[in-house]
Amino acid sequence: MTDVTKIYGSVSILESNGRLIGIQLPRANLPENNTVSQNGSVRHITLTNLNIPGPECEDFSYFVTQYYWNGSSFVFVGEPPNSHAYYDLATSAWVWEADLLLIDIRRRRNLLLTDTDWTQLTDTNLSAEKRNEFQTYRTALRNITDNLDNPSSVQSVPWPTKPSL
Predict the structure, then answer these.
(1) Bridge partners of 45?
(2) 12, exposed or middle or buried, with CB in 10 Å at 0-12, 13-18, 19+?
(3) Following CA atoms 152, 154, 157, 159 in sequence, which dihedral angle do they give, to the nearest 10 degrees?
(4) What is the pLDDT of residue 67?
(5) Alpha helices, DSSP H only, in 17-78?
(6) What's the pLDDT tens digit per position in 72-100?
(7) How many Cα atoms sit within 13 Å of 59 on the Cβ side?
(8) Taking a C-beta distance cutoff of 8 angstroms, is the pair 113, 142 a contact?
(9) Alpha carbons 112 and 165: distance in angstroms, whole number
(10) What values do phi and psi take at 118, rounded to 5?
(11) CA distance to 34, 55, 112, per residue, from 52 (Å)
């Protein structure tokens, strides 16, 4: 028989939206359950407040990113689509600030451009045809943000294919 009162750890919760912001496993003294601080509150993880039949493993490091607190229990929401996403329990959907994700997309684009800067130098061994292929690729990279339709992650952007060497 499983002990439903066993404490598997404690979680710090951002009270404004239920986001889990930290976890402490029971290898140390855990803070009191329902403790409220300036940044949020603390809840103990037990079988009673988990929406799963029982802990799948003793390693709850995934717990902070894939669960939210709905006020009475922990709810599995899965992995966020990007580093800026938070889960809106009211709509049961991931939400993120599009401008912040656009910054990440531009960073990736700039790295890809930097990686091919050398292809536009006149003293390379590239043929004029290859140099033109890279020039077309680099133009597509510079224009990548022009027609984006609210991507969910940097990986979901339709990146142009880098020419082969």
Answers:
(1) 9
(2) buried
(3) -170
(4) 85
(5) 63-66
(6) 888 889 889 999 998 999 999 999 999 99
(7) 2
(8) yes
(9) 15
(10) -60, -25
(11) 21, 7, 42
